[in-house]
Design a protein that fits this description.
Length: about 600
C-alpha cells in the first residue's frame, strides 16, 4: 500500500519497501538517511496508514530508530497534524544527538531547555529533555504538551519504568499529547514495573506482556546486512581471593561453581591489580590491530563497572598500545565532548562506565571488552548494541567476555526477542541465568558492607587469563589456549572484513588446526619426555576431567547432543568406568578420540 500526501504525490521512500536494499543506505550519518531502509519504510507505511495515537517500535540497536522517528515527525508536521515535538531521552548526551540529527532533516529541537525556563523559545519546533528532567516537574511538561498539538518521542521508553515516580510523571506530563511514538532497542525489562503508554495483553499462560506495534529484531537485521555479526571472544582463568572471614578461596571461571563463588571469581577477574584484565586487554588490542588493517578507523571500547577501575583500565591500555586512551566517567558536558571527539577521530580506545552502553552512536566501534559486573539482559543487549552498527558489508564486531554463565547465556541468546512481562511466571529466575539481574552487584554490596564491620576485608589475591573459545552464531569454536600463543591468535587474528559464512568457515579451519597442533605437542612430549616435578595424582585427574568436560561440551554443542550421550558414547568406544572413576589413561583416550573428531570437522 502506498502513502500519499494531501496533494496526491507519493512520499519518497514510503512505499514499495521491497524495492529498497535492506541495508540501504550503507553509511548514513546518525539520523540523516535521505532514503529509508526497508524496515523503516515498512514501519513508516504502517504508521501513516493507521496514524495511531500510540505506537511502539522495537528495533535492534544500530538499526536506525532515530531516522525512522524523525521521518514520522517530518511527515506529521508536513500534514499539519502536530504543532510541536518533544523528545525524551535517557541522558543529556543523547538529547544533543537528537537535536543534531533533527537539524539535518530541518527540525529545530532545543536540547538546552531547562525546567527553570518555563516555556520554549518560538524559533524551535520543540525540545529534547531527559526522563529525569520530566520527573522533577511533570506539571510543567504537561503545560508544554497542552500548548499545542504535541508529538512526544519517547526514546528507549523502557526507562519509563525505572521507578514508580518516573512512570507516574511521564503519564502526567504526556497523557494529553496528540501523538506518542515510543522507541526501544530492548523491548523488555527484568522487573515488573509497567512502562507508560505501552499496551499489555495476556499470553497463553495469562501473563501480561507488552505488545509491540512494529518489531525489527537482531536476527532479521543481521540477515538484511543492517547490523554486524558478533564474535564473542571468551576468556576463562584461575582466580584467588580472600573472603571477609579471612579464608583464601580459588576457582576457575567457567567451571560449575556455586553462584557466590562465581560472583567472587568474576569480581577477582575484573580487578585491575591481577593478570586477567591486562591479558584480555592485550588480546583485545591485538584484535583491534587486525581489524584496523581492513577498517583503518576502527575503535575499541572497554565498559567498566566504576570510575576507579575505568581509570586503572585506561592506564593499562595506554601502556599496551602506546596511545592516549579516552576516558568517559560520567554523563557530564566534558564527557559528551570526549565521546564526540572520539567518534569523529581515529584513536584506538575509549574506556567508559555506563553512559556509553545505551543509545550513544559511535559507528566505528568494532572491538569491545565487557569488563563490568552488570548482568541484566537489558544492559547486556544495549552494551553489545554499541558494536553492531554496520557501515559496510563484511564488518564484524568482536566482544571479549569473561566465562561467566550469565554472560554466556546472554551471548547465546543474542537473537532471542523478548517482550516485557508485567507478571512473574512460575520459576522465573530459577532456570534462566539471564534474568538473575542483581547477583554480582548484590554480592558485592554485601561483601563491602561486611568489610566495613568485619575483621577482614574481601581482597583479590591473584588472577590469570586463558583463552577459552569463540562463540559465533550460537556455535563454539576452539578450546583452551595461553594468551599470546599462536593458538590464541588463530582466533583473535581473523580478518576484520568477512561475510558471516566466511567467518564460520575460517573458525572451523582454525579449530581443526588447533587440534592438530595439540596432537603434535603430545607426540613430541612422548618422544622426548622432560624431567619434571612429580604432580599429585588428584591434580592430574582434575585437569584431565576438566579438559575432557570442556571437549565434551564443545562436541555436544556442535552435534546438538546432550552431554550425557557424548559421555556414554566415549565409554562405549574407549571402555572404562564413568568419568569420576576413570584413570588418567582412560581419560586421555577419550580426550584423544574427541580431539580427532573435532579436528576432522
Amino acid at each position: 500500500m502506498s502513502t500519499a500526501t494531501p496533494s496526491g504525490n507519493h512520499l519518497p521512500g514510503t512505499s514499495a519497501a521491497e524495492h529498497l536494499s535492506p541495508a540501504f543506505p550503507a553509511r548514513a550519518p546518525w539520523g540523516t538517511a535521505s532514503k529509508l531502509r526497508a524496515w523503516q519504510a515498512e514501519a513508516l507505511e504502517q504508521y501513516l496508514d493507521e496514524l495511531p495515537r500510540d505506537f511502539l517500535a522495537a528495533a535492534t540497536p544500530g538499526a536506525g530508530k532515530t531516522t525512522f522517528a524523525l521521518r514520522i515527525a517530518a511527515e506529521l508536521r508536513a500534514r499539519h497534524l502536530i504543532d510541536r515535538i518533544t523528545v525524551v531521552a535517557p541522558t543529556d548526551h543523547l538529547k544533543r544527538q537528537w537535536a543534531d540529527a533533527a537539524a539535518r532533516v530541518g527540525i529545530r529541537l532545543d536540547p538546552g531547555f531547562r525546567n527553570a525556563h518555563g516555556r520554549t523559545a518560538r524559533h524551535y519546533h520543540g525540545v529534547a529533555v531527559t526522563y529525569a528532567q520530566v520527573a522533577i516537574r511533570p506539571a510543567l511538561h504537561r503545560e508544554l504538551t497542552l500548548s499545542g498539538r504535541t508529538l512526544v518521542i519517547l526514546d528507549e521508553v523502557h526507562h519509563g519504568g525505572d521507578t514508580l515516580s518516573w512512570g507516574d510523571a511521564i503519564r502526567e506530563a504526556f497523557e494529553p499529547a496528540e501523538k506518542r511514538l515510543s522507541l526501544t532497542g530492548t523491548p523488555f525489562r527484568s522487573d515488573t514495573a509497567p512502562i507508560p503508554f505501552v499496551q499489555y495483553e495476556p499470553d497463553a499462560k495469562g501473563v501480561r506482556v507488552s505488545r509491540t506495534d512494529y518489531n525489527y529484531g537482531y536476527g532479521r537485521a543481521l540477515a538484511d546486512g543492517v547490523v554486524r555479526p558478533v564474535l564473542f571472544m571468551v576468556y576463562a582463568g584461575h582466580m584467588r581471593w580472600r573472603t571477609k572471614a579471612g579464608d583464601e578461596m580459588e576457582a576457575k571461571l567457567g567451571e560449575d561453581n556455586t553462584k557466590d563463588v562465581t560472583s567472587s571469581a568474576w569480581r577477582t577477574a575484573l580487578e585491575p591489580t591481577g593478570e586477567w584484565i591486562p591479558a584480555v586487554l592485550r588480546a583485545a588490542d591485538r584484535r583491534l590491530t587486525e581489524v584496523r588493517q581492513a577498517i583503518p578507523d576502527a575503535g575499541g571500547l572497554v565498559i567498566a563497572t566504576d570510575q576507579t577501575v575505568a581509570r586503572a583500565y585506561a592506564e593499562i591500555l595506554q601502556s599496551i598500545c602506546g596511545e592516549r586512551v579516552t576516558v568517559v566517567l560520567s554523563d557530564e558536558k566534558e564527557a559528551s565532548a570526549r565521546i564526540e571527539e572520539f567518534s569523529a577521530g581515529t584513536s584506538r580506545w575509549m574506556v567508559a562506565v555506563r553512559m556509553v552502553s545505551e543509545g550513544v552512536d559511535v559507528p566505528r566501534l568494532a572491538v569491545g571488552v565487557y569488563a563490568t559486573s552488570s548482568a541484566t539482559p537489558l544492559f547486556f543487549a544495549q552494551a553489545i548494541g554499541r558494536f553492531v552498527r554496520a557501515r559496510r558489508r563484511g564488518e564484524t564486531a568482536s566482544v571479549f567476555l569473561p566465562n561467566v554463565p550469565v554472560l554466556m547465556a546472554l551471548a547465546g541468546e543474542l537473537e532471542r526477542e523478548r517482550d516485557h512481562a508485567l507478571d512473574r511466571r512460575d520459576g522465573d529466575g530459577d532456570d534462566d541465568p539471564g534474568l538473575d539481574d542483581g547477583l554480582l552487584e548484590a554480592a558485592n554490596r554485601e561483601e563491602r558492607a561486611s568489610d566495613e564491620a568485619g575483621e577482614f576485608t574481601w581482597q583479590a589475591i591473584a588472577s590469570d587469563a586463558t583463552f577459552d573459545r569463540v562463540v559465533f552464531d550460537g556455535t563454539d569454536f576452539g578450546t583452551f589456549a595461553e594468551p599470546g600463543s599462536d593458538e590464541e591468535f588463530d582466533f583473535i587474528g581473523i580478518p576484520g572484513l568477512l561475510e558471516p559464512d566466511q567467518v564460520a568457515e575460517l573458525l572451523r579451519h582454525r579449530q581443526a588446526r588447533q587440534a592438530r597442533r595439540a596432537g603434535e605437542r603430545r607426540k613430541q612430549a612422548v618422544d622426548e619426555p622432560a624431567a619434571a616435578e612429580p604432580v599429585a595424582l588428584y591434580r592430574t585427574l582434575k585437569e584431565q576431567r576438566s579438559l575432557l568436560n570442556s571437549l565434551v561440551g564443545l562436541y555436544a554443542r556442535q552435534m546438538g547432543l546432550p552431554h550425557s550421550q557424548v559421555h556414554a558414547e566415549l565409554r562405549r568406544v574407549c571402555g572404562g568406568p564413568d568419568v569420576a572413576h576413570a584413570t588418567v589413561t582412560q581419560l586421555q583416550a577419550r580426550i584423544d578420540l574427541l580431539r580427532r573428531r573435532l579436528g576432522g570437522r
